[in-house]
């Protein structure tokens, strides 16, 4: 299968490397920024282009992996292609593509990607969707090459998943950052708290989070909660977060 | 060293097992509830007692591992002992003990403990404090047997650490639980999001969280944020959490 990759960000980069590792042919990398296109294309021996008119029209699969609000305009530049065009977005409707191209699909990897961190693609849940059963089968086969976890999901469920991912990934990471802020301002290193973060995630690999909640809020330990709030008296933003999340923990059914 | 353990909860249970595994002699387990005392004592071949007057007075070390607000009254029951009396609390001053007993200390394991999940004690940061240098050395040697990470920390820094732990552990776990709520209500299983949780924690083992933040808020992707807020329109509590944390991410220095 000949694949054209449109995008050069975090998702595109990790996807390109995973595709190459599985022997798939990414023939072109498109990015409006030629430097970025060349950087990624160079790593997977593909051609770099920065003009949508220079994109090959005879590829089998076009993967649009760009910011959500740029998907539509790139799809509009692929009107002539016969291959399957997919995006990798959690929140964008398949119709954004199918209004522009002949065959549309979604290829959404549910993972957090940073260029500075390698990921094991085999364990990334891949959520697929397509406008017809034949194309869905193509995506299923490709997804099964890349990962052990392939989910066929409609757009509504994919959006729910993306929302849940913000709660399960983006927000926890931000809370790690706030913890680091508190530590640094008191001359303590983030290293000291890493085992706790690892164990907190590890616990929910085999348990449901509501069954392993610990801390002052779940114990209704108002004395500790009040001590913490008073330690944060010069940080009203952190105080608000502490209060909001503690209240939410208390309201959780046990 | 002969050790008396006062408490039978999550921390006491994991500590008892770790002490036994390293060949330390826990000779007694005290709990006001005899059933609980016997349950834990039976696992480590110790005597179970539910009366403070029955606690041995000639042990070397007394570890009080109970809810914070119960520490003082238990310490008051140990006035006669000559051994070192420590608590395992992140937020309780050493003075709560030293006002009651001859030799006081703190032995605070920075970890989240649930009885249903085993932990590798070797990698748990142990924070120690004592009223004199000799006792501190005793704690340091014991801590070094149990863990590779021993920190000598005064009460103020220990409290900061405990506060940071709420942000790095208790709150993220609650956010996992909210993610699960969103998934379940839409017929999706928590399993699908576990690889994302694992990777989110794994990323900060070698990076600082502020350098690997992903998601709509850090991209200032208002369109996705608004879609998510509208998906939560029937859940004002989740909407508030989403809004508060997204705003906080946007305000984070990059």
UniProtKB/TrEMBL annotation, chains A, B:
Every Pyrroline-5-carboxylate reductase catalytic N-terminal domain range: 3-80
Gene3D superfamilies referenced in this protein's UniProt entry, alphabetically: NAD(P)-binding Rossmann-like Domain, ProC-like, C-terminal domain
Domain called DUF2520: residue spans: 124-248
Database matches in Pfam families: DUF2520 (PF10728), F420_oxidored (PF03807)
InterPro entries named among the record's database cross-references: 6-PGluconate_DH-like_C_sf, DUF2520, NAD(P)-bd_dom_sf, P5C_Rdtase_cat_N, TM1727-like_C_sf
Protein name: Putative short-subunit dehydrogenase-like oxidoreductase (DUF2520 family)
Provenance organism: Pedobacter zeae
